[in-house]
Specification:
about 160 residues, five-stranded mixed sheet, 1 helix, elongated, about 10% helix, mainly beta, Jelly Rolls
Length: about 160
Amino acid sequence: MPSLMTRLLSILLLTGMLAACEGEISTNANATGDAPFPVQNDPNDNDDFFHATQKYLGSTFSDTLSITDTVDYFFIDLPIGVYRAYRFELTGLTGDADIELINAYLNKESWSDNLETQDELIEYWRDYTDLDNNIVYLKVINRSGNDVMYTLEIQ
């Protein structure tokens, strides 16, 4: 059985530890939940990762970027356990646009930044090291300063 002295020391130590925590409570005014959302874009636009539009392998579609809508984000859910080359091609450009391939951890895997209206092409080999990373993002970027029409093919 612990002695009276050991008990007193334990109580004093605990009291000292609790006193050290005094004033540690956050006084951040936004801690109550009135902090702004990190993304303020229209949820119907695909102008950021949070509002990326889902596309599928084997699809082709066309869209337009403007001087105010300068990027489009898309995501593709790649099949699990399928190891092959994937092809993402930007064609029919009416101005300078580039394409980037970004993994689920938001690291740029590959890109194509040809000049002016040249087609942009990314060929991406997915192998066994990517088993936990079956989502990829495509970012189409308007570099021209004018409206740019494009066609994106996902194979």
